[in-house]
TrEMBL record:
One GO molecular-function entry: NAD binding
Residue ranges of domain D-isomer specific 2-hydroxyacid dehydrogenase catalytic in the record: 10-330
Protein family: Belongs to the D-isomer specific 2-hydroxyacid dehydrogenase family.
Domain D-isomer specific 2-hydroxyacid dehydrogenase NAD-binding: from-to ranges: 114-299
UniProt keyword Membrane present: no
Protein name as it appears in the record: D-glycerate dehydrogenase
CDD domains hit by this protein: GDH (cd05301)
InterPro entries: D-isomer_2-hydroxyacid_DH, D-isomer_2_OHA_DH_cat_dom, D-isomer_DH_CS1, D-isomer_DH_NAD-bd, NAD(P)-bd_dom_sf
Highest rank taxon of the organism: Bacteria
Amino acid sequence: MTHPKKPDVFVTRKLPAPVEARMQELFSVTLNRDDRPLSRDELADAMARADVLVPTLTDRIDKDLIEKAGPRLKLIASFSNGVDNVDVNAAARKGITVTNTPNVLTEDTADMTMALVLAVPRRLAEGARFLSQAEPSEWQGWSPTWMLGRRIWGKRIGIVGMGRIGTAVGRRAKAFGLSVNYHNRGRISPETEAELEATYWDSLDQMLARVDIVSVNCPSTPATYHLISARRLQLMRPEAYIVNTARGDVIDEEALIKCLEEDRIAGAGLDVFENEPDVNPRLLDLARKGKAVLLPHMGSATLESRIDMGDKVIINIRTFFDGHRPPNRVLPGRD
């Protein structure tokens, strides 16, 4: 009795050990042992000879790469929640199925969002940095005016994008005594609105002008590119803060930097950046001055979430090669 050939799977970045071990049991796998980002030529070579490509959100799988892919490549099983790094329409024209790993990052990303909501107004990073860098004699102990931040209890949060993550942020915000406001393509269910005591704003402009903290939780799409534009940043109150754990290009980063430098908003907490992995030096300078808290895209970085993502990748691959529709198939949109 002959056994079916295992699909050749190429994984572009290092994954958690349990995920890699399971992949090696099930597939013929090429792993990225040193976790080095692959060049465009290396990605093209992998796509010329693999049955399955497992990219991550930092791998740009564009139309040109897809059109040059070899005839064996039938599945791009992205190790990511979003697929803005993959040209899904080009893949569909080539007969390549695309899958992702949705619904496993919600709670971890919402936790990190809330951490930034707390960290920026309460100057957590600034205080930690002072103690770690100060000379022993520099801190004289508690005083009434030392490291004064701003209270968040009783303030208004405006959530831009009320999907799973935005809703999870809303639950945490309500528990911290914030009143929940949100802007979304459509209203959430009446039951969830009632649970969060949330106010829906059809006008993003009007919401931005009235809240104390803005949390960006929408996906990166052509429609959300620079959604938080220079004009919209000008609408925010001088005492307001903005937090982004979604995608860097949802905010016009240059305009945000200018607002922070000119004290037109109070501060920013950013886990994502418009030109990752490059971080604008002016943002780094603002962080040193206590105007921003910057994190290296670690909102979903828990071992649990990465293993859950790997499990979804494996299920998508196995389902596809068993002749069934993968549970997390991404359908093409309109060109």
